[in-house]
Amino acid sequence: MTVPVVETAFANSPFSFSEILAPDERDQPEPKELKIMATDGVELDIKIYAPSQSKEISLLFYHGGGAYSGGGYQYLARGLSEQYGITVFLPDIRGHGASGGARGDAPSKEQVWRDIDTALDFVQKQNPNAKIYLGGHSSGGGLVVNYATEENESNKKSMAEGYVLVSPELGYLSKTARPDRKDFAKVSILPFIVNQCFGVYGHNKAVKFKYPSELLEEYKGLVAFNTVNMANAITPESPKDQLESMTSDNSKPVALWVGSDDELFDAQKVANYVSTSESNTGKVLSGKNHLGILVEIHKEIGPWIIEQQN
């Protein structure tokens, strides 16, 4: 299900919803939707957009903060599936969308990362011969950066052939925020400090998203907050070092795209985190904003992934 137009909801919103809320008159088939079991027994929802003729390439792609897989990500998934033969898997992060778990929360940041292990296992089992790429938008991109740079023996990042980052939220330490931005989230710093020192307050609702109330009322898949644990899972702690390790020599290819009109980020500062090279690309797309970029980003992702196969 996609998010509909809510005519009066967005006057004070931090970014535009109009591009992803535009009605689509085409008769679109619904994706296959399944539940997979996390290591702690929580059911995770995942949607599969399978092409009629597969190129044996899969993309596991994570949504942004407080969002869910039906909030504009269907454009990306359908475009890649229909036009490039790529099978796209759109999971709902635990506590979001149709996934189980306490809303906006997680037992720990590590459990969110183990959920990616579970999803990668599932993707591989669907087609053992397919090459898998891992990606995310906004805070989903931050989640992928954290996962890709985590040092843990159970981490299955070796299954990924490369990484796709779309308008990634790299955290306040990245210094990529627009100076004139309207904040999408109100963050209480004290719970993070106390949790870091004493291991408590992990379930505190420390990050409150400024979604329009009409949208939250209409679509229960959205969440109005993230806890300390969830925020720590999706927010890079050392973005410069993390991206350097992801794009160093002999590392896996990384592609990053951000819109020139992104309402949250200084686009060039974000793009500079991935220098364009033989295997990597960091690119500013003219005229695209934070959510609107999702509508046609398949035209960038598809050719880049296919090029990696040559």
Plain-language structure description:
By secondary structure, the chain is of the alpha/beta class. 31% of the residues lie in helices and 18% in strands. The protein has 11 helices and 11 strands. The protein is globular.
CATH architectural arrangement: 3-Layer(aba) Sandwich
Number of helices: 11
- Going across the major beta sheet, what is the strand order? 1-2-4-3-5-6-10-11
Q: What's the overall geometry?
A: globular
Query: What are the secondary-structure elements, in order, as H or E?
Result: HEEEHEHEHEEHEHEHHEHEHH
Q: Helix fraction?
A: 25-40%
Low-confidence spans: 1-9
CA-based gyration radius? 18 Å
Measured distance between first and last alpha carbons: 36 Å
Give the number of DSSP strands.
11
What fold name stands as the CATH topology?
A: Rossmann fold
